[in-house]
Structure formats: C-alpha cells, structure tokens
Amino acid sequence: MYLRLRLEFEEDVVAASRGEEPAGHPKEAVVDALAHSLGALHGTVGGAVPLRWMGTVAGGRDVVLRVGAEDSDTVRSAAAVLASYDGRPCRLRVVQASPFLQTLGDGGDGGDGGDGGAA
Q1: Most Cβ neighbours (<10 Å): which of 6, 31, 45, 70?
Q2: Ramachandran quadrant class, 72 (left: phi over 0; alpha: psi -120 to 50; beta: rest)
Q3: Which tens digit of pLDDT belongs to each residue from 4-57?
Q4: Is residue 107, in this structure, part of any structural domain at all?
Q5: CATH of residue 72
Q6: Are the C-beta atoms of residues 51 and 41 closer than 8 Å to each other?
Q7: Domain that holds residue 17
Q8: pLDDT of residue 74
Q9: How far apart are CA 42 and CA 104, in angstroms?
Q10: Is the pLDDT of residue 75 over 80?
C-alpha cells in the first residue's frame, strides 16, 4: 500500500491562509514523526512497522511511503493522532492512499516521486 503524507505545522497553515505556498518538510521529519507516533500509539510492535520512502510529490510538500497492506491501518491511525513533532504543534495528513504508486502522482508539478498519474 502506498500512502501520500503531508506534515503540516502551525506556520504552514498560517502561510496558506495568507495565500502563500507552505514550505515542504524534509522526508526525514515525516518518517521520524510517523515512527515516533507509531511507537507511542502501538508500542514496540507498532514502532517496528517498516516504512519505505518512495519519493516526494507536490513540489516536495508530500512524501510517498510504501507500507505493507497489513500495516496500512496501523500507520494511518498513527498519522491521525500525531499532534506535535520536535516540540511544535503539527498534524500528519494522509493526502491519498492507493495500492498503485502511479495514482499518487502530482499531475506533473515538478515532484520527483510521481509521473503525473499515468498508468
């Protein structure tokens, strides 16, 4: 299963409300935040869920991860409950989920992890 995730901090939401383009966050921040949330919510077993980084889309704002189909609900629940990272309020939003990587493309706006949705 492929998940397209976006880490949003409070300042990103403020920038978007002013019509500014929010900055992307490093893939390491997204993976680290998710790994911490998995461990906190699901313990040692949840913290051991393999997360495979596949690329970024939407100009680097979104990260695409591959997780096992059996772990998809576990990862999505950990993303839903994440409320802070590195001492800052945030949310980790699942933008899209699909069993097919090609469907998570960004329509060709310059990301390096999608092909515009072409099959």
Answers
A1: 6
A2: alpha
A3: 999 988 877 777 777 777 666 778 889 999 999 999 998 888 788 999 999 988
A4: no
A5: 3.30.70.3250
A6: no
A7: 2-97
A8: 93
A9: 27
A10: yes
